[in-house]
Specification:
It holds the Pfam family EthD. InterPro entries: Dimeric_a/b-barrel (IPR011008), EthD_dom (IPR009799). GO terms for molecular function: oxidoreductase activity. The chain contains 3 helices and 4 strands. The chain has a 4-stranded antiparallel sheet. A hairpin with a 7-residue loop joins strand 2 and strand 3. The longest helix is centred in the N-terminal third of the chain and has 16 residues. It starts with 7 loop residues before the first strand and ends with a strand.
Length: 104
């Protein structure tokens, strides 16, 4: 399986430019926490993108690439997911939305 075919989950945060979102914490603390928690289950890479923050809409997109479909289910069903989710209030008041991208 090539890297471009890796199953992908996007986690997005929607809001307004003035909403609290600590990018530094997210990049330096939260993303490493996610990688540490789910790498053993098949998370291969993680990246964050920050669209323009001048309009209401998507403030952050996190791309999580997994080894295979089973790795996604295992990671999100793992005990470590509770710790990952408990960390969200450390950097934002916004609720994350999870999107699974299916290959065609």
């Amino acid at each position: 399986m090539s890297h471009t075919e890796s199953p992908t989950v996007y986690v997005t945060y929607e809001g307004a430019p003035g909403d609290r979102f600590d990018r530094r914490y997210y990049i330096e603390r939260h993303l490493p926490l996610v990688m540490q928690a789910w790498q053993r289950y098949g998370l291969e890479s993680i990246a964050a993108f920050f669209p323009s923050s001048t309009h209401i809409g998507t403030l952050v997109i996190c791309e999580c690439r997994f080894r295979d479909e089973a790795a996604i289910a295992t990671a999100f069903g793992s005990p470590e997911t509770q710790e990952v989710m408990a960390d969200v209030p450390s950097f934002t008041d916004l609720a994350p939305t999870r999107l699974r991208i299916a290959s065609l």
